[in-house]
Amino acid sequence: MIRIDTSNLKGFLPQDWLSARAEKLAQARTWLKEGTGAGGTFTGWVHLPRDYDREEFARIKKAAAKIRSDSQALVVVGIGGSYLGARAVVELLRSSNYNLKHEDGPDIFFAGNGLSTDALLETIELVKDRDFSVNVISKSGTTTEPAVTFRIFKGLLEEKYGKEEARKRIYATTDAHKGALKGLADREGYETFVVPDAVGGRYSVLTAVGLLPIAAAGIDLDALMGGAAEAMEALSVPGLDNPAWQYAAARNALYDGGKSIEILVGYEPSFRSFAEWWKQLYGESEGKDGKGLFPASVEFTADLHSMGQYIQQGERLMFESVVRFGSSLGSFTIPEDPEDADGLNFLAGKPLSFVAEQAMRGTLLAHVDGGVPNLILEADRRDERTVGQLIYFFEYACGLSGYLLGVDPFDQPGVEAYKKNMYALLGKPGYEDRRAELEARL
Ligand code: PA5
Questions:
Q1: Fewer Cβ atoms within 10 Å of its own Cβ: the N or the C terminal residue of the chain?
Q2: 305 catalytic, yes or no?
Q3: Whose CA is nearest to atom 9 of ligand 1?
Q4: Residue 427 — φ and ψ, nearest 5°?
């Protein structure tokens, strides 16, 4: 299970930082459990690891097996919560070099998560001469970036295979009833998977949104969901020793004490996309009503040689939440060099993980000494079960933390502002007045 070490917050927080929040945490727990707090209709993720749709789960595995057998590449079209979770899990459990490394199954390309012409052309170039399938993911079914991108890949598939075979290579993950994508999928006869009504985009990684691409990468869904279910059980128990309670309370107390940035620290390159998922989860859940910690992330030790300077001596705005995994998946011993020209023989025979451990310990003390509170989140070995636990831990703590902050952790009204302007400037019907107003300003 995920463990938390808050000993390095000492001196930065009042002694009662946790107990002072006990009542609010208990209230937040009830709101999450019963769906009775702000945004309560979007708490379907809370019991998802127990209550997920078994029939759909089996269909996801079947579709993934088909993709693995008939496709050299899978294009996952989606943005925000409709792609970050899948990417996070594939990279964390497989590798950030997944496409270069995997032995079976398809390469996975993420598309539709931006509007870069060059990125799109590159993905087309990489898949067009290979057997490929497409998983288009959009809860609303109307988001511009994936919608435009899907139109293009749908056209490519139909040109390559003909309409009938293309149809069998397209998997649509969307709302059960509404939206343009749902209509299109029904008309064309695509296999569809559901984003449950009660689960918002950033909490959807353990639904078909994340699970189909994750299974296509050969990852064990049962172990992943099993880990999440373990976390669900453990974290539902109220009490000040609950690690999610502690994490939520610590970030809330640090925020109240003047910190405005939380930096999620990872020591594995494969953790980078997981940190992107975490940033969306916390940024969209808490950044509203003029409040909220700004979620940032770094990868150490690489970023100690770039952002490390600011963290050590720049404005004292931040604290760090360090995610540590129990042990490396492999091992590497530093070799002896008879000439010792680099003077490193004092490390010969030691595992590289020993050097990493000392870097981690040294960094922690340096940053704490520099006025940056550190909290440590410890996870076991980097496998399916642990990652399932970690996902649920962060989701659950995010719900608690949003309620402590006094916001609705499940809406994202701010995301609409740019969309409305973009629709207006693109000339979408219905936005004529806004267009005239914006053009005049530009
Ligand atoms: O968390 C969210 O709700 C957003 O990030 C959405 O996931 C994102 O905007 C994509 O929306 P949709 O899945 O409707 O295309």
A1: C
A2: yes
A3: 80
A4: 85, 25
> Model pTM?
0.96
Residue 279 annotated among the catalytic residues of the structure? no
Q: Which atom of ligand 1 is nearest to the CA of 179?
A: 14
CB atoms within 10 A of CB 416: 9
Q: State the chain's maximal CA–CA distance in angstroms.
A: 77
The residues lining ligand 1, judged by C-beta closer than 6 Å to any ligand atom, are 79-82, 138-140, 143, 146, 200-202, 284, 412, 415
- pLDDT mean by block of 10 residues, the chain; 442 residues: 96 97 98 97 97 97 98 98 98 95 94 97 97 96 94 98 97 95 96 96 98 98 98 98 98 98 97 98 97 98 96 97 92 96 96 95 97 97 97 98 98 89 92 92 92
Give the separation between CA 289 and CA 407, rounded to whole angstroms. Answer: 7
| Contact indicator for 214, 175 with CB cutoff of 8 Å | no
Q: What is the pLDDT of residue 415?
A: 86
Query: What is the length of the chain?
Result: 442
- How remote is the CA of residue 385 from the centroid of ligand 1, in Å? 26
Instruction: Point out the catalytic residue in the list 230, 284, 299, 384.
Output: 284
Ligand 1 atom with minimal separation from the 202 CA? 1
